[in-house]
Amino acid sequence: MSETSTKPHVDEKLMREVSAAFNSRDANRIAECFADDAVFYLARGPEPTGRPLRGKEVIRKAMADRFAVIPDMRWEHKKYVLAGDHAISVWTVKGKSADGEELNYQGCDIYRFRDGKIVEKDTYWKIVEHKDRL
Prior knowledge:
Elements: H1 12-24, H2 27-31, E1 34-41, E2 52-54, H3 56-69, E3 74-83, E4 86-96, E5 102-114, E6 117-125
Parallel strand pairs: 1-6
Antiparallel strand pairs: 1-2, 3-4, 4-5, 5-6
């Protein structure tokens, strides 16, 4: 197979860089991981896909706003699953929001990359409830 026909490859080094950017809580550093036309689907939101953040600047502002209310938010990465231009990051997120909400969720992100930049990030996390139901 010729080099021009191979799919872009995401490696663990790139994923560690992305994870380090998020754990830095530096919105500008995080935004630099994204392509200008990227879409980041948050775990929460009014749509079944979560709230979509479209474009690098919108993502940067949302991250700055998030860290203003959850200044100690951090991710403990458990593993990465790599497949061509896609990757999955499995993690636990922790922190405490300004309104007192304790974050301790397990989740994952599904990424798609182009030229070493995130073009799509889709976040999922477990819902913690204290009710006995499925």
